[in-house]
């Protein structure tokens, strides 16, 4: 032991202790810092306000779109919507009725969360389906502005679906 070397058993213990310390430091470096309860409440309030704003915007957008599809004469719809002249008027009215129901469903949690959560979930899924089909139509017709609009609508709907239905946010 005079040659300044440690016995293997001590070296092994020291080495394993250093490895454990390095692992603990690596785990602590990747963990997110804990958020104070007050910050969690503030974050939840802002998230909830953002999601309700998105729900209101989507409800207004689809209520207006459905009103146009249900009340406008076919001649005006052909000008307003390019696809309306290629399908029967009853199909356009059915799409308008579905959009109206989904718009109302986006505001269903106002009634109560127990009733509103499943209605909101199905409404968001229905709007995502409609938006996906409409986006494909606009991509095929090279209508880039309509694609951008539908992507924004899809982002709002997806965020509502993710945050409102994943956990209890009133």
Automatic annotation (TrEMBL):
InterPro entries: DoxX. The chain crosses the membrane at residues 49-70, 90-112, 119-138, 144-163. Keywords: Membrane, Transmembrane, Transmembrane helix. The keyword Membrane applies. It is a multi-pass membrane protein. Its main location: membrane. It is found in: Membrane. The keyword rRNA processing does not apply. It comes from the Bacteria. This is DoxX family protein. It comes from Brevundimonas terrae.
């Amino acid at each position: 032991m005079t040659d300044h070397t440690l016995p293997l058993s001590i070296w092994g213990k020291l080495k394993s202790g250093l490895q454990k310390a390095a692992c603990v430091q690596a785990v602590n470096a990747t963990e997110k810092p804990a958020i104070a309860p007050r910050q969690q409440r503030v974050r939840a309030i802002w998230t909830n306000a953002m999601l309700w704003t998105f729900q209101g915007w989507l409800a207004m957008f689809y209520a207006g779109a459905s009103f146009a599809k249900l009340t406008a004469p076919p001649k005006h719809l052909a000008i307003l919507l390019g696809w309306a002249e290629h399908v029967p008027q009853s199909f356009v009215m059915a799409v308008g009725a579905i959009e109206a129901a989904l718009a109302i469903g986006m505001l269903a949690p106002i009634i109560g969360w127990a009733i509103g959560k499943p209605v909101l979930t199905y409404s968001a899924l229905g709007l995502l389906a409609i938006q996906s089909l409409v986006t494909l139509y606009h991509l095929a017709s090279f209508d880039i502005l309509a694609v951008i609009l539908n992507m924004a609508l899809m982002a709002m709907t997806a965020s509502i679906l993710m945050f409102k239905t994943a956990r209890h946010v009133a």
